[in-house]
Design a protein that fits this description.
The structure is a single chain. The chain has 14 helices and 20 strands. With about 500 residues, the chain is of the alpha/beta class. Strands 7, 8, 9, 10, 11, 14, 15, 16 and 18 form a 9-stranded mixed sheet that branches. The longest helix is centred in the middle third of the chain and has 26 residues. The two termini are about 45 Å apart. The protein binds ligand BES and zinc ion (ZN) (2 copies).
Length: about 500
């Protein structure tokens, strides 16, 4: 889909549909909606007076213009109360409106820039949100389905703005929004892919392709190198599968004069059957998405390579299948992690923390700091918080705050959980330095405490995205299936760190 910005009067736009908006409680719409209302002989204010159109969030009213406007259709999208308007609503309203228009076969759409008028939001951010809403809301995963002739796509979306002085900012917003949303869709594509089409080797190939497109360096560690490095935890998880594990490393050097490099780590279990501690069969197909954290990290790196912020970032994604077999690791087995710590594997289904233990050790050996890891780590996190937010935990409050703030900008919620020292005791083993599962209660916290044992004093934020990896319905920018969370948060976090370090450097030079 092409997305462009035009200066002009939207009521005169010839697109097959024009999208306007309405705030809740407004009786006589102003701005572009008001102008179109007049051209339609007061049709919109009549709908409001009759109580059919209220401007409520997610409400859509479709009006045929019957020759009174160049465009055959007007779609009025409700934005809710004006004082509650946020960028999230601009994203979601755009997505909902465009999905509706696609369903009825509309191929070209013009939209006003929701939020940039009386909404009082920054025009560039509104344009970014509209591009994100369009690209993410219209996402479909159709690779394995027969082509359906009725499933047409929207070819072009035009943002129409009367004020010429805003056009440049709007174009910048659209360009950024496109990259962020395309990154999220890349993460969705990888996560939605069935496990027979996305093995660790194929995930590594896709990372390589992303690196090539975005100008990143890509290195893939093979089993032999893992053996040399002593990655017994990752190798232990992988040993039950015929698919060899891959440790995917992507490097972006946007600030080559400095050594400091941020580490983004993502869990890359391409299928989690649970291993010998096998999962129940209901719900098991869903575990093809147990690499969602790794996918988000790879997709974020692709966007970072294209946006070119002044910062160094290295991604580390341990990829493996967790399968039961004659060669699989058994409950009670002891493995030696790269850090030298021995781990008693009391439950082979707690494999994410095992592969991350070695990824963290590798990241620290590479000198990465701070570290952010992203993982579909525990069902316990989803029980604790539900589907609305990703859980986060940290040993560095200031860093965690920055991730949460980046999430706010991206419209992705994070909620912090405590790392209570008391629960460390749950991880004591009789035969090894640590065991991989504690008690059922507080399971998301003890999982994070397990990772903390390998993180040491490196500043670190852990994101447990088990609650948010999947959407079970179409809602705003979310469509059924993989969400692409927290790809946009990671990108926005990296951009904010880069802005900060550019500022710090300028200060250092007395500018
Ligand atoms: N990948 C799962 C966690 C998960 C479950 C993510 C459901 C998304 C949806 C993880 O590897 C796992 O199996 N965790 C176990 C840990 C338990 C054995 C301590 C869990 O949560 O049940
Ligand atoms: Zn598991
Ligand atoms: Zn898992």
């Amino acid at each position: 889909m092409e997305i462009k910005v035009e200066v002009g009067d939207i009521s005169q736009h010839p697109a097959r549909a024009i999208v306007l908006n309405l705030f809740e409680g407004v009786k006589r719409p102003g701005g572009a909606t008001g102008a179109v209302d007049k051209a339609l002989g007061g049709a919109i204010s009549q709908l409001i007076a009759d109580g059919e159109t209220k401007g409520k969030l997610n409400e859509l009213t479709l009006i045929h213009t019957l020759g009174r406007l160049p465009s055959p259709r007007v779609l009025v999208a409700g934005l809710g109360k004006q004082q509650e308007l946020k960028l999230d609503r601009v994203r979601d309203a755009t997505a909902t409106a465009l999905r509706h228009l696609r369903r009825i076969g509309v191929r070209t759409v013009a939209t006003i820039v929701h939020g940039a008028g009386v909404g009082g939001l920054e025009p560039q951010q509104c344009a970014q949100a509209i591009a994100e809403g369009a690209v993410m809301g219209l996402y479909r995963f159709t690779r394995h389905k027969k082509k359906n002739e009725n499933e047409r796509e929207i070819d072009a979306l035009t943002l129409v703005e009367l004020d010429r002085t805003k056009a440049a900012a709007l174009r910048r917003g659209v360009a950024t929004g496109r990259i962020l949303a395309e990154a999220a869709n890349r993460a969705r594509d990888m996560a939605n892919e069935p496990a027979n089409y996305l093995t660790p080797a194929i995930m590594a190939e896709q990372a390589q392709a992303a690196a090539q497109e975005a100008g990143l360096e890509c290195e893939v560690l093979e089993r032999e190198q893992m053996q040399e490095l002593g990655m017994g935890a990752l190798l232990g998880v992988a040993q039950g599968s015929t698919q060899p594990p891959k440790m995917i490393v992507l490097r972006y050097r946007g600030d080559p004069r400095r050594k400091a490099t941020l580490g983004l780590l993502g869990k890359g279990i391409t299928f989690d059957a649970g291993g010998i501690s096998i999962k129940p069969s209901a719900g098991m197909p869903e575990r093809k998405r147990d690499m969602s954290g790794g996918a988000a990290v790879i997709a974020a790196m692709w966007a970072i390579g294209r946006l070119k912020p002044r910062i160094n970032v290295t991604a580390v994604v341990p990829a493996a299948e967790n399968m039961p077999s004659g060669s699989a690791i058994k409950p009670g087995d002891v493995v030696r992690a790269m850090s030298g710590k021995t781990i008693e594997v009391v439950n082979t289904d707690a494999e994410g923390r095992l592969i991350l233990a070695d990824a963290i050790a590798y990241a620290r050996q590479q000198g990465l700091s701070p570290i952010v890891d992203v993982a579909t780590l525990t069902g316990a996190m989803a029980i604790a918080i539900g589907k609305a937010a990703t859980g986060c935990m940290t040993n560095s409050q200031a860093l965690c705050q920055k991730v949460i703030a980046a999430g706010e900008a991206a419209g992705e919620k994070f909620w912090q959980f405590p790392l209570y020292e008391e629960y460390k005791e749950h991880l004591k083993s009789d035969v090894a330095d640590i065991k991989n599962v504690g008690e059922r209660e507080g399971g998301a916290i003890s999982a994070a405490l397990f990772l903390a044992e390998f993180v040491g004093d490196t500043p670190w934020v852990h994101l447990d995205m088990a609650p948010t990896e999947r959407s079970d319905k179409h809602q705003g920018i979310q469509v059924k299936g993989a969400t692409g969370i927290p790809t946009r948060t990671l990108i926005s976090f990296v951009l904010s760190l880069a802005r900060e370090s550019v500022l710090a450097q300028q200060k250092g030079q007395g500018r």
